[in-house]
Amino acid sequence: ELPRKIRKDGFTLTAEDAAFARLIYEAKVRRVDRRQVAPFLAGLKESGLYDETLLIVTADHGQQLYDHGGYAHGKGVWEEVVYVPLIVKFQRQPRPASLGPSVEAVTQAVDLLPTLTAFAGGSAPEGFPGTDIFAGPPRSWSISETKRGWALIEGGWKAVGGRIGYSLATGVCVGLVCFLGLVALLLAVIPLVAILPILLYIG
Q1: Sign (positive/negative) of CA torsion 90, 124, 145, 139?
Q2: Which residues lie below 8 Å from residue 184, measured CB to CB, with a gap of 6+?
Q3: pTM of the model
Q4: What is the pLDDT at residue 74?
Q5: What is the DSSP string of 111-157?
Q6: What confidence score (pLDDT) does residue 140 get?
Q7: Is 90 exceeded by the pLDDT of residue 37?
Q8: Please, is 12 exposed, middle or buried when counting C-beta atoms within 10 Å of its C-beta (0-12, 13-18, 19+)?
Q9: Which is nearest to 81 in space by CA: 93, 92, 71?
Q10: How many CB atoms lie within 10 A of CB 156?
């Protein structure tokens, strides 16, 4: 309800409202940790499978908590939306030699399938996007996309671009430019059409 009011009704939050909304979101995350994640990990440990289990914690997107005037995801490529964790807990066996305790690298969601299949001794389908993040030097760039735009992230920099046709404002601007171009064309052509009979008569 809140994202719809902000997006469609022009509803705005005060600084106190935004802080309270963030607290609500954090409370929901803690509830998931307490009621779902913690019992799952406890069950693995009680069954003796924890040390033999590869665990990966990640997400498909972040959440914009009114950081840039919105309260949702999928509408922009801000850091709070595209920057998500990738936490890996390996089995008791040694981790890949290319990894240390932590890795400062850029990854994408499409890297998970080839990484997991390679780790299990298999291979991803031919032509599938993404790379095995455990196999050597990681990439230095990443691409994020939404229906409204895209972002290329590399070396601490981000190039952001939009797509024409996804917003009313963009449509109005494009239509206005086309209209002004047509008016300019008519203003250039009409005098020529009016002068042409005179030129023919003189000729």
Answers
A1: positive
A2: none
A3: 0.64
A4: 64
A5: GHHHHHHHHTT--PPTT-S---TTSSSPPSEEEEE-SSEEEEEETTE
A6: 80
A7: yes
A8: exposed
A9: 71
A10: 6
